[in-house]
Amino acid sequence: MFRKLYDWTLSWARSRHAPAALGTISFVESSVFPIPADVLFVPMCAAQPEKAMSYAFLASVTSVLGGIFGWFVGHYGAEVIVRPLMEFYGEVDKFDSLQAYVNGNTWIILLLLVTSGLAHLPPMKVVTLLSGVVGFNLGLFVLSAIVARSARFYGLAWLMRRYGAAILGFIERRLTLIAGGVIVIGLAAWYLLKAHG
């Protein structure tokens, strides 16, 4: 199923409706859709590098709006929508573990938002829905989403314009390592503060 969704998403890159598709995919990725917008964003930037920055703006704005929608879905539809959705994607255990781990710690949610926004660790939809479920401050959520998603899309657009498609594998490997490093540092700081608190 996911492979078909992936191929279907990628097929829009060759369409004249590619910008509209990018906006739609970026929006739904942040709340319910399992395929990252990068699948569409990257080939669009590769095909028309002169438009990469405008694509980055479009993807950033619609991704943040989708995140806000996901926050409201999580806040007002935790049992009716979020639980069945997580069951459908087979992510109930991951979602429950994250919810128990967050346990009202604002900075942990911020950390998750940044790593998710930059490198999809964990998936964006999980973090946006979780933020709504636990009642994370909406203003801080929006600010974090703007910073993280803009950094990812504009960063990818700049790298694509400068180095071309050949740099993609390198980018993805390094983003994952950076996000992992941020998580490790954040966890270490939390344990230190908790031990001395």
Number of strands: 0
Portion in strands:
under 5%
Shape: globular
Structural class: mainly alpha
Series of secondary-structure elements, N-terminal to C-terminal: HHHHHHHHHH
Helix share of residues?
Answer: over 70%
What is the helix tally?
10
Distance between the first and last residues' Cα? 48 Å
User: How would a crystallographer describe the biggest sheet?
Assistant: none
Write the layout of secondary structure elements.
Blueprint: H1 2-11, H2 18-29, H3 38-47, H4 52-76, H5 78-89, H6 92-102, H7 106-119, H8 124-133, H9 138-163, H10 168-196
3D architecture notes:
It is a single chain. It is built from 10 helices and no strands. With 197 residues, the chain is mostly helical. The chain has one domain (2-196). The longest helix has 29 residues, at 168-196. The termini are far apart.
What is the compact description of this entry?
The protein has about 200 residues and is mainly α. The chain has helices at about 1-10, 20-30, 40-45, 50-75, 80-90, 90-100, 105-120, 125-135, 140-165, 170-195. The termini are far apart.
